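Folding Task

Wanted — backbone structure
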Amino acid sequence: MRFSPLARIAYNPPMPDRIFTSDNVAPACAEIIAAVAAANSGSAASYGADHWSARLREITSSVFEKEVTIFPVASGTAANALALSQIVPPFGAIYCHETAHIMTDECAAPEFFCGGAKPIGLPSADGRIDGAKLAAAIAFAHEMGVHNVKPAAVSLTQAPEWGTVYRPREVAAIAAIARQHGLAVHMDGARFANALAYLGCSPAEATWKSGIDVLSLGATKNGALCAEAVVFFDAKLAHDFERRRKRSGHLWSKMRFLSAQLIAYLHQDLWLANARHANAMARTLGAGLESIPGARLLQAVEANEVFAALPEPVIAALERARFAFYRWPFPGLVDAISIRLVTSYATHAADVADFVDTARRSG
């Protein structure tokens, strides 16, 4: 009997810090734990009327160089589903990449909160939406008229699920197609900091200056305890969103603890420092694996994910050494086994070196 990767973790737990399955496995970083502890002093107004939440609005507006409206929530699924429900009608289409979380990983939460809207996945080899395919899909919907879901929004994942990154010009090109047809543009920024760390551009350039209307700002994968946020770059789009959040169960009575996490996350660019480390560990992994005979990278390593093809004996040796990672199906790959490795702000350079050395010895 063969166990799934999740079962191997459950029944044969690897040594701490040798887990490359996801950045979700990392602990919350010390600065954010300290911020939560500091917020846990005395009484504070409830439901977001506290001074931490007011301060968060100020800091986020400063970071994005524009007055924004921000709504903290506790999960990325909530951020995505609620953001989309604000801009998509029940009979609407949400165009996304076929591997986007809203398509594959959120148990129909976007459809549920949108009242029945339909995500439509577009294929590409690198996880980024192809503008020509997007335009063709929108044109087809218009041709079908009332018989098809109405084009309503485009959702971009940044960084995409294959570990690549959209450049601002690519975001702007897709947003221009969306604007031409009256569609809103959402960004799933679960790994937004990792993308920024790679691009070296400003948060504004990566979002509203490139045509993004609403951002799901992720923090949990990059050091937070449990904190995400929906950020609107146009206050008109946020009308009544506070009621959507309340109805979904994400208006925390003690909102200060969510806001405190996000303040610490953005303070003195902690989010970017964490992401730079995660990205650097991924680059080191990728370069090390690429030097091994019989191994090859399947995607460019731009954020904090590595997709590589390795011989089965190498993969088996890594598993015996109690490294945890996923065997990850890669379209069209028949001559090797593909794996996915994800690094985080807490990944140790020594563990990356051990992984590469183990793979090299086994090759």
Q: What stands out?
A: Residues 56 and 116 are 33 Å apart (CA to CA). Residues 1-11 have pLDDT under 50 and may be disordered.
